[in-house]
Design brief:
Blueprint: H1 10-23, H2 29-40, H3 46-58, H4 66-90, E1 94-95, E2 98-99, H5 101-104, H6 107-126, H7 131-153, H8 162-187, H9 192-219, H10 222-225, H11 231-234, H12 240-246, H13 251-257, H14 265-275, H15 278-296, H16 304-318
Antiparallel strand pairs: 1-2
Helix pairs in contact: 1-4, 2-6, 3-4, 3-8, 3-16, 4-6, 4-8, 6-7, 7-8, 8-9, 9-15, 12-15, 15-16
Length: about 325
């Protein structure tokens, strides 16, 4: 991303970081320690940044409301809670370059910390006193559960289609970005057409983000990702590059069928995916969703904020470089 992408909301993001630590003030010291550890781990804060940029874009005077700030904070809390639960389910030992919560503490603390964060987000959401926003964001937590169930039921399933996979990706990743964009527009009292445009922008951005994540799980390094590569494969989560590669490389069925139990199965699978058109086809699909996200912004008035939102779309693809 251009160094100026977040400059207009730089102070807002600093406030967000301070508020996140205040918002997770659990009475139980172990829960507090786990939650504080999570937010100290940092992260790019892309989701709250998008919320704040949509807020600026939809306010006539460009001034972000307190409710927008709170929605950005809620969005990051929900995202973080979902990561904690994901790491437990996938038995992932690293996240953002640090040991995961269940690895540092234990699985019970991690599950409770995730539950606590979801509960905190619901409390702060209710206190926005905006029923439409509450309904929109509450649906996200249901979508997370739906995505996890779908993923759990389709482990090592060689019959999963690209469409099935994209649906699951919507529930697990894109739903939060789409709904928080829409929620920001709602708080600004934007009209329904504008609300739907930003929902569409967030939806396609989120799907593209997930597709690029899947490529990086195959081609990236642990240092770059902040978590082990090939982790999805190990857990039986068949992602887009592998689904595309299956149509070309029959030997992959053998590795999946035996659930990558042999010593070099993961490495061989990764190499077979790299040798196929799977990564290129996934990148092409991500580009389609990036274009759809940009198209959703077409009717918005020209502004620096709109350009910042476009830059975020373009940034998704540059993560591969």
């Amino acid at each position: 991303m251009n160094i100026n992408t977040f400059i207009s909301i730089e102070n807002d993001l600093k406030i967000l970081d301070k508020n996140l630590k205040k918002m997770v003030g659990a009475k139980n010291p172990m829960l507090y320690a786990a939650a504080e550890y999570l937010f100290n781990a940092g992260g790019k804060r892309i989701r709250p940044a998008i919320v704040l940029l949509v807020a600026k874009s939809t306010m006539k005077n460009g001034i972000i409301k307190a409710e927008h700030r709170r929605l950005a904070e809620i969005t990051e809390i929900i995202h973080t809670a979902s990561l904690v639960h994901d790491d437990v389910l996938d038995d992932c030992t690293k996240r953002r370059g640090l040991d995961t919560v269940h690895y540092v503490f234990n699985t019970k603390v991690a599950v409770l910390a995730g539950d606590f964060l979801f509960a905190q987000s619901s409390w702060y959401l209710a206190n926005l006193n905006n029923l439409d926003v509450v309904k929109t964001i509450s649906k996200v937590i249901t979508d997370f559960a739906e995505g996890e169930i779908r993923q759990g039921l389709s482990q090592f399933n060689m019959n999963i289609s690209v469409n099935d996979y994209l649906e699951k990706s919507f529930y697990k990743t894109a739903s939060l970005i789409a709904s928080s964009c829409q929620g920001a527009a709602m708080i600004s009292n934007a009209n329904l057409i504008e609300q739907n445009c930003f929902y569409t922008y967030g939806k396609h951005l989120g799907i593209a983000f997930q597709l690029i994540d899947d490529i990086l799980d195959i081609t990236g390094s642990t240092k770059l990702l902040g978590k082990p590569t090939g982790n999805d494969l190990k857990n039986g989560n068949l992602t887009a590059p592998l689904i595309f590669a299956l149509s070309e490389t029959r030997v992959l069925y053998k590795y999946i069928n035996r659930e990558f139990q042999y010593k070099n199965d993961i490495q061989k699978t990764i190499q077979n995916i790299k040798d196929s058109q799977g990564i290129q086809k996934t990148k092409d699909l991500a580009k389609e969703h990036i274009q759809a996200s940009l198209k959703a912004l077409q009717n918005q008035k020209e502004s620096n904020t709109k350009n910042n939102l476009k830059e975020i779309s373009h940034y998704i693809l540059t993560r591969l470089k």
